[in-house]
Structure formats: C-alpha cells, structure tokens
Amino acid sequence: MEGKEFFLNDEVEMKKPHPCGTNRWKIIRMGADIRIKCMGCQHSVLIPRRDFVKKMKKVLVSNQE
Asked: Which helix (H) or strand (E) holds 61?
C-alpha cells in the first residue's frame, strides 16, 4: 500500500466531520504530531501522525511546490 502524501498548509478532508459541521482541515504543524485547524470554526487539534494518517480521507488542496 502506498503512503498518503501531505504537506504543510495542505487542506485535507477527514473521515469524520468536526462537531461544527465542517469536514475541511488545514495542516498547520508537522512533526511526530500533526496540528490541524478546522476551516469552519478555526479550532485546532494536535494528533499523533499515525492517527492522522488513519483518519485522513484525502487531500483537497495541495500546497506542494
């Protein structure tokens, strides 16, 4: 299985929506943990990279250069 590619400032869709109703997130920090910010209510969440890879559905807007 090929690993999912994502980069800093990418907008991603997660498998489950945020309680505010939005399913669009922006990656704002990368490392062993990934910090993502909800594009609806601006709430940010820090989750381990392993969990993020499992819960991410797809990359909506890529900022790879």
From this structure: strand 56-61
